[in-house]
Amino acid sequence: MVASVIQYFVFFACFGLSFYAISSIQFEKVCSVKNPKKVQILMFLLSLALAYITSQAVLQLTIYNGFA
User: pTM to 2 decimals?
Assistant: First the structure.
């Protein structure tokens, strides 16, 4: 029970940080933006993927190995 709460907390913290970091990328220079909602969906999906990878790495290095 406690482990799953920690996993959710770490994931949402990583999601917030990754969304903040990805929002600094200027997608106008990378691709032609005709519909801003598509860019927001892209940012959301990239943030989810980055948050998942980051949270799994943090949990693997700490919780799963018994350091915490």
Answer: 0.82
